[in-house]
Amino acid sequence: MNIIDVLIEQSPALIIAIPLLGAFLMPLVSRINSTVRNIFGLLVLCLTGFFVGILASDVLANGPRLYIFGAKDLAVPMVRILFEVDSMSIFMALITMVLAFITLIYSWSFMKDHDGLDKYYTLVLLLITSTLGMELTGDIFNFFVFLEISCIASCALIAFWISEGEALEAAFKYIVVSAIGALFVLFAIGLLYAQYNALNIATLANVLKYTFLDKIILVLLLVVLGMKAGLVPMHMWLPDSYGRAPPSVTLIIMGATLASFYGVLRVIFTLYGNVLSTTMRFSIPLNVLVGWILITLAIISIIVGVAMALVQSDFMRLIGFSAVAEVGYMFLAIGAGIAALGTPYATTALQGGILHLLNDALDIGLLFLVAGAVYYITKKRSLDDISGLARNMKYTTVFFVIGLLAVVGMPPLNGFASKFLIYESVYQLNPILSIVAILCSILMLAVFVKVFYAVFMGPELPAFKNVTEAPRSMLLAMGVVAALMIFIGLFPNLVIDALVKPAADALLNHAQYIGTVVGGV
Amino acid sequence: MIEYIPFIAVVTMIFIGLYAVLFRRNLIKIVIGISIIESGVNLFLITLGYREGGVAPIFTSLPPGTTYPAGMVLPVPQALTLTSIVIGVAVLALMLSLVMHIYRKYGTLDVRKIRRLKE
pLDDT tens digits for B58-112? Predict the structure, then answer.
């Protein structure tokens, strides 16, 4: 056994351990000076990224990988904590790492003038740890623990600009919503444990009987995780917290939100994978029911997100509402994939949804970075106070245009690839859904063209006569995102074949996930 | 009947907590409500692990004559509860410090007056 094999074998634990250790070393390292602190943060992320990378190459080649804490093998009784990494988990982990790198590089310049930065970087690393943990774990109680860590870390980051009352208000709203949500997840976990005497997802999925209690558990988990992912009617915390958190961390908070979305997928496709075709009352199968509920909520999310974005005047809050709409698109695709489970277009819908997960993170992320750059330069939030920035901020303007075109799904940018997959597959389920989705995309264009004119075009305000371009590290971060978006837009097939298809197959093929743990299903 | 009392208590506590969160206007009372929900859930977990006449699940100091593992209460829910209590303390501390700062900024704890975010 050579060194690489050992590293791959240990990597699921190291992916969590390295950023966690880094987070708690951060206050110590920060005492030296700020350059060392920045380099240390980058080093921690590079190491984590390296392990995610080698684990990804192994998982994509050889199928799911198991890591059992505190034991060599799974002896009875199965109360060990275990990490199970399949193509879907590793896809999410890769997204998280990309977002983490961009956040860190962007933060160097953006947060330079603030104090308390040792705590800031500690919280950022903790949030990254918890997001990765939620994505890699194979144990449902562990999922809850990481959910709570992400809730605490994101709440502290949202309230980071503590001198603003609004930030405190948003943070309090966020923590009330997510603390209650997490407690209901814990309640659902208790119900699962009471029935099946097990806590790891694969074992539970194997023995799930779909009793009355299981219906309650499904509802509890879907409601809470849907809420944490920002699905209407529980989306109200999302624009508030996205709009008030420092724009540099919005990306990584979005990563945590996407991890909740991953939780929804895991619950439906893996935990309830065996019973999805169970017939309910009026001979409606469970998958059709769950699928249509998700589709309905998704369509409402899209409409509400776009409509509310139209009337906002706060730049970041506006992007927050369009993020709600984007979450709606993902749920639309997933709902269609579940409702039509088994048909070829259901697989397409699922792939579209999973690709859109990546694209949403990049598109909305880039817009937040641009909004952050504008805020950094002008210190203004309201669209009414900003005007004519294109004269002095050329690169930022270009990045905003790229983000705008991607978020509304224009070819040749990445948004087009995933939205086209979604339209095409949802159309076969029900044409009206597709039409609504396309119309809302066009409305989204109206929203962002308005922003474009308000912020970058228009008369030059005397206050902004001498503004300069955003600092270099912020431009670098935005440039990396924009380059990724153009690359995915030009070669969507590469990404779909390499990452998205394995991820969708891993979700649909839940027997493999279960079999890795239980053995010979 | 008597064995259902803990479960009835769990549901009652969760609903009392939810009532406080949804209908009380004072931020501190909302925090108390969340705390009550948390206690309810913890009580639920502990109740799951109970076995009549069971002893504490410590291997090295089992009383003589205990049958293993049927004579012990389940250790897993207790571990879960401990974890959940620790997390609960962290969340509670964070919420209370937020409430403190909100009071400093707004001079009130009434949720109806703390709504600068709404447009």
Answer: 777 777 777 766 777 788 888 889 999 999 999 999 999 999 999 998 888 888 8
Across the interface, whether the CB atoms of A190 and B98 are under 8 A apart is answered: no
Work out the angle at residue A260's Cα, subtended by the Cα atoms of residues A308 and B79, and round it to the nearest 5 degrees: 140
Q: Is A290 on the interface with B (CB under 8 A)?
A: no
The residues, ordered by sequence, that sit 6+ positions from A255 with a Cβ below 8 Å of its Cβ are: A95, A96, A99, A100, A127, A128, A131, A361
Cβ–Cβ under 8 Å, residues A271 and A201: yes
Closest by CA to A410, choosing from A434, A432, A441, A379, is A441
In residues, how long is chain A? 521
Q: Is residue B119 part of a domain?
A: no
CATH number, domain containing residue B86: 1.10.287.3510
Question: pTM of the full predicted structure?
Answer: 0.93
Do the domain assignments include residue B102? Answer: yes
Count of residues in chain B:
119
CB A99 within 8 A of CB A361: yes
8 Å CB contact between A59 and A87: yes
B21 chain-A contacts, CB cut-off 8 A: 176, 180
Domain residues for the domain of B20 are: 2-55+68-106
State how far residue A241 is from chain B, nearest Cα, in angstroms: 10
Q: Which among B30, B45, B77 is the nearest to A176, CB-wise?
A: B30
Nearest residue of chain A to residue B109 (CA atoms) = A169
- The answer as to whether B118 is a domain residue is no
pLDDT in tens, A330-343: 999 999 999 888 88
Q: What DSSP element (H or E) covers A403?
A: helix A394-407
Closest C-alpha to A120, from A133, A97, A132, A104: A104
